[in-house]
Amino acid sequence: MFALLGAYVQGVTGFAMGMIMLTGVTALAPVSLSVTTAAVSLASLVNIVLSLRGHLRSIDARGFLILLLGQVPFLALGLALLTYLDAQMQALSELLLGVFIVFGCGAMMLRPVPRETRSPGWGFALAGAGGGLLAGLFAAAGPVLGWFLYRQPWPHGTIRATLLACFAVSTLVRTTLVASAGGLSLDVLRFAAISLLAVLLAALLLWRWPPALEEQHLRRGAFTLLTLSGLAIVVRAAPAVF
Question: pTM for this structure?
Answer without folding.
Answer: 0.76
